[in-house]
Each structure stands twice: as C-alpha cells, then as structure tokens.
Specification:
Largest sheet: 5 strands, mixed
Helix content: 40-55%
Oligomer: single chain
Strand order of the largest sheet: 6-7-8-10-9
Length: 653
C-alpha cells in the first residue's frame, strides 16, 4: 500500500480495531533525517520483548509456542478451534501479553486445553522454548494453568483497595515480594536522599527480587543484567543513529542514554533527561526507555517504550502559542498560590508525526505525551510536550460516520455543536493537558513524589485533565485564536463528561469495576461534578440514559474547585484524600447503566479499542550500495508484522 491508496482502517477481531497511521511530510525530510529515523526506529523495535516480559513472566514463552502452532503447516487451519487460537494470539500480540491492554484481566481462550495440547505435540520439540532438560509434557503442565485457569495470575495490575497489590498483580516487576516489603525497601532508599536536590527515580529500572535467604535485591535492567540482549541491540542502533544526529547536543543525549543502558545507573538517566528536555533543535526526536509507571501497581517501575517522531511544523504553531504563555496560565490557575510555580521553566510543546511506535506505545498508543516524569526535573529544567497529529488524524478519519455520537448525544442541537467544534477542541485539550497540565503546580518541600502510592497515577491524570478543561473555556483561548468563540468549549465539556459518566463504560466487562488510571480519572471528574453541583444531570429519553448540561458556567466553577483540591492533594502528598476521591467517585460502576450502555453500543457494531500497525521503513540503494532514500510501506497485515517482529527483533526467547 502506498500513500496514494492509503487505508486507515484494517482488520478487526475481538474488541479491537486495527488502524494505520500515515507519515505525512516524511518525503520532505533530508536523507540524514530519514537515516536518523531509521536507526532510531530499529532501537524502538528491539525493546518489544522487554515489554512482553514486564507484562507477565510467561508472556514470551506463550507467544513463542502460539506462533509455532500458528505457522505449523501440519496443523489444520480450517477449524473453529484454530480460528479461536488465532484470535487469542492476535489479542496477545496487541496487548504485549495475555492480559487485556486496558482492563488488565487475563484473556479467556476460545480453544480447549485438549486442542492446545494436541497442537503443541505437532510442533518440532527442538523449536519449543523448553527450559533445561524440560519435556514437552512438562512445558504443557507449566503453561496450561497460566492460559486456562482464570483464577491463576488473573490480573496484570490489581489496584483493589485493601489487597496486597504486588502479590495479586501478575506483572513481572516483583518476584516473591509483598507490597509492604516493596514499600519498605524503597522508603529506606529514599530516606538517604531526603535533602538531595536531584534524587534518582527509585526502582524505575529493576525487578525487585526476594532471594532464598529472604533478603531483597534489585535485578537491574542493563546490558550486563536483566534484558541485556535486548538492550545491547538498542544500544547498537542508538550508536548508529548518532552519526546522523544534526547537532552535538543530540549526540550527547544519545551518549547519556547509552551510558544508562550500559550501567543501569539512574544518575545517568537523570543526566539523559536533563539534556533531552533542554534540546529543542532539529526536526527529529525520540523517546526510548523505561518511562511510564502505570503498569506497576505501586507506580515505581517503568515499562519500556519507544517512539520516533518528527515535527509537524504547521500544527506546532498552536502548541507554541500555549507554551509561550505558560507563565500566564500558571499565575491565573484557580489553585492556591503556594501550590503554583513562581517561575515556569523550560516548557516546550510540539505537534509531531509518529514515525515508529514500540514497546508500550505499540500497537495501542498515546495521542499526547509529557516528559520527563520526575517532579524535580519539571521544576528546574522544564518538560517537553507532544501531541501526535498523525495518530489523532487516523482516529478521526476512521471514526467518521460510525453512528457513535448520534447514539449517545442527547439532542440534535448538542450534536451539531459537537460536530462543529469537537475535533479541534479535543486536540486543544490534549495540548493543554500535556503541555501545561502535567507541568503545572509544585510539590511542597519535603513531600515524597510517590506519597499517593497506587492512587498517584489517577490523581496526576485528573490534575492534567482538569487544568485543560478549566482553561479551554477561558477567554484567553479566544484572544490567542485557539478557539473560534466563547461558546466552543461547551463541545469539549459535553463530550468529556459524557465519556466519564456513560460512554467509557463500553470498555468495561460486565460485573467489573474501573481500574485503568485514565478511565478512573475521567470517572472521578465527571461523577464529582455531577454529585457536587446542579450543572448537569443524567436523564432518560425513550428508555435510554443521556447527559444533560444546563449550566456550563457552573460546570467550569466545579472544575476549578476540583482542580484546586486535586492540586492540594498532589502538592501535600495527601494519600488519604486521594484514596477517598478515587474510591468514592471513580471506581464503582452502576450495573444497570452499564448493561444499557453495552446494549446500545453492541447495536453499532464497533470495536471499543483501537491500535496501529507500523509502517515498514524501506531503504533504497544506489548502484554502489549507498542508501539514497527511505520509503514507508503500509501493506503489512497484523500477522505479517508481528511474526516478522518476533523473528527480527526477538532477543529474549
């Protein structure tokens, strides 16, 4: 598939819809910029096995076994059980493991234990991931409970209040450790750095292990430690990329990242982050590392991710306006003055095109990112914010005419307003969330940045969303030319609150509560505003539930009030208040409303989750074997891409 016959929508299975993103303007980049992207893309793809292993100790072996069955010509592919195995494998590929990428619950296979066993015995034993002296029978006995027993290692990330979050989570960040032991271990480490201005991100790049004698130690992720084979390849391609970097500053950034991977020393990571956030030159940038902590129930361990990007220069004018006015937004925030930054430093914001997604950013990816995550770096050096234009563009084009808004929006006037403004306002809210929201406010002196524990991610996302919601309705947006008039914000308010109260329930299985941080954040904001004011209510029309907003001005006042409280909780490290907010307003699901929403959604025949296939970057050579161009190719199917990745980038299995 070329750019001329580009299709955004690809195959669909289970609750997943595959999409494609287009590399808009890639052909205008210089050959060195393209080579830089090519090498960085390789470095992103070589982290795939790390993410699989982090998401569950058995993921890589199960993936290997299922891929061998899937490609074995001696096994009949024209049976219902094989088709069910194929769906299971595709879900595993999509989620980087056997747990749902959003809900964290383990997949229920549609094929039987007997069928799985029969197929496994058809595969050449020499190709199976057998441990030392392990038989095929022993491998089956090891894997069958993991795949088929719904109560064994049942959830990747458990955030249920009152339970041991470490012992009940199947993610592979801890081995033989309890929650209390992990918290005590890292609190002891932090106590040695209380007065240090630049502390490391404790636990970010290690597996915490209990040895046979009961002592705890960190198995550090480095070239000489765990994940060494994958990190060696990542370093190889990062070093290759340096020759095409457009400045010594970019080369220095890569060198610091390489030193971090070589040693596992978190001070090198601090050095890398400080250099990375300060480097604003060049069209090409990247994210590569153990970054976000949503996959750890304690919010300490970084999941590996990779993203290669280049600037969307026209759209960046929008985010540049926002970042240029960062101090005004901070000064006029409705939070207490002691929680605001006196001087906002280093805020940069760009709209970018993704050139390659990897690790936890693939196939499901964010539409906006703000980094680094360390509060002291944000305070002293600033942050970089990106909105990914070709991803949001693909979402928009794929959703046109699907009937979703018509089903859930209360009336034609509101629908017309949303159709007119929503896409523009949604992008602007993402810009405000990433560029200013995450970078706003400050911790009080001495407050542990991890004080909110399992609730920290939800509170942080709520804080950034509330910041964006508050300011998207401000007259300043009109003055800056970012919104067309003073009424347009209502489209964003309606779609956001509708999502938090109603439509995001399509992503929850019947009988389950909300656990994912971004969904918890949206539910918290919407339910708090619903219950603490009269600006909006849920109404019934012809037996269906709709959101009615009668007072948008009051709704903004409620958003301001909640923003002030959420910032206080963050700044003071008020764990009990964070717990009360999340547990009271965000977690529980109304079973009757849930059933209704699922029934209405099923009629639309839509998949609630979307993910992306990467383009292939194909070097073009001249007669001397020199690369003269790199061309994106969009024709791979999901199975082709995933099997190729396992073959070309598999390092840990």
């Amino acid at each position: 598939m070329t750019i001329d016959n580009f299709r955004y929508v690809d195959e669909r299975f289970a609750d997943l819809q595959m999409l494609r993103y287009r590399l808009n303007g890639f052909e205008k980049l210089t050959i060195d910029e393209k080579k830089y992207i090519y090498c960085l893309a390789k470095a992103s793809l070589f982290g795939r096995d790390i993410t699989f292993d982090q998401f569950g100790a058995y993921n890589l072996r199960i993936r290997k076994v299922l891929e061998l069955i899937y490609t074995d010509a001696s096994i009949d592919h024209d049976t219902e059980e094989f088709r069910q195995l194929e769906i299971y494998l595709k879900r595993l590929w999509f989620s980087n493991g056997i747990y749902h990428h959003y809900g964290s619950l383990k997949f229920v296979p549609g094929f039987s234990k007997g069928y799985f066993s029969k197929c496994l015995y058809c595969v050449d034993p020499k190709r199976l991931p057998l441990s030392d002296k392990q038989t095929v029978k022993a491998l089956l006995e090891e894997l069958i409970p993991v795949i088929f027993d719904k109560d064994y290692l049942s959830k990747r990330v458990n955030k249920t209040d009152g339970e041991d979050l470490v012992k009940t989570s199947a993610c592979h960040f801890y081995e033989g450790v309890t929650q209390q032991e992990a918290e005590d271990f890292y609190n002891t480490q932090k106590s040695s750095y209380i007065n240090e201005p630049e502390p490391p991100s404790f636990g970010l790049n290690s597996t915490l292990v209990k040895s046979e004698d009961g002592t705890l130690y960190e198995d550090v992720w480095s070239i000489k430690g765990r994940y060494g084979k994958a990190l060696s390849q990542i370093v190889f391609w990062l070093n290759n990329a340096k020759q095409y970097a457009n400045s010594d500053e970019q080369k220095s950034i890569i060198s610091s990242l390489v030193s971090y991977y070589e040693t596992g020393d978190l001070q090198y990571f601090n050095d890398y982050c400080k250099k990375w956030v300060s480097c604003l030159d060049g069209k090409v940038d990247f994210i590569n590392g153990f970054i976000e902590v949503y996959g750890d129930p304690l919010g300490l361990k970084g999941t590996w991710e990779g993203l290669v990007e280049y600037v969307d220069e026209e759209a960046t004018r929008r985010t540049q306006l926002i970042s240029d006015n960062a101090q005004w937004f901070e000064d006029n925030s409705p939070v207490e003055s002691r929680f605001r930054k006196k001087v906002v430093k280093g805020v940069s914001a760009k709209v970018i095109c993704a050139a390659m997604l990897g690790g936890d950013e693939y196939p499901s990816t964010a539409i906006g990112i703000n980094l680094p995550n360390a509060d002291w770096i944000r305070a002293e050096y600033g942050s970089k914010s990106i909105t990914i234009s070709n991803i949001t563009d693909a979402y928009t084009k794929a959703a046109k005419g699907n009937g979703f808004r018509e089903e859930f929006v209360i009336d034609s006037d509101t629908l017309s307003m949303i159709e007119h403004y929503a896409d523009t306002l949604d992008n602007l809210h993402t810009d405000l969330h990433e560029c200013l929201g995450h970078g706003s406010g400050q911790l009080l002196q001495g407050v542990d940045p991890d004080a909110l524990k399992a609730y920290g991610n939800t509170i942080e996302e709520a804080r950034a969303d509330l910041f964006g919601l508050y300011y998207i309705a401000d007259q300043k947006m009109v003055e800056l030319g970012l919104v067309p008039n003073s009424e347009a914000y209502k489209a964003q308010y309606y779609t956001y609150m509708m999502n938090g109260l109603i439509t995001q329930l399509v992503r929850i299985e019947r009988g389950c509560n909300i656990e994912e941080a971004h969904m918890l954040n949206r539910a918290l904001i919407a339910h708090w505003c619903l219950e603490n004011g009269t600006a909006m209510r849920l109404v019934k029309k012809a037996g269906n539930t709709y959101l009615e907003i009668s007072d948008y001005c009051q709704l903004r006042e409620l958003i301001a009030k909640l923003l002030a409280e959420v910032q206080r909780i963050k700044s003071e490290g008020d764990f009990m208040a964070a717990r009360q907010l999340v547990e009271q307003y965000a977690v529980k699901v109304d079973a009757d409303l849930h059933d209704e929403v699922l029934h209405r959604y099923e009629k639309l025949n839509l998949a609630p989750y979307k993910g992306f296939l990467n383009p292939m970057l194909l070097p073009q050579y001249d007669a001397r074997g020199e690369i003269v161009d790199i061309v994106p190719y969009y024709g791979e199917s999901l199975a082709q891409q995933m099997l190729r990745y396992s073959s070309e980038y598999g390092t840990l299995i």
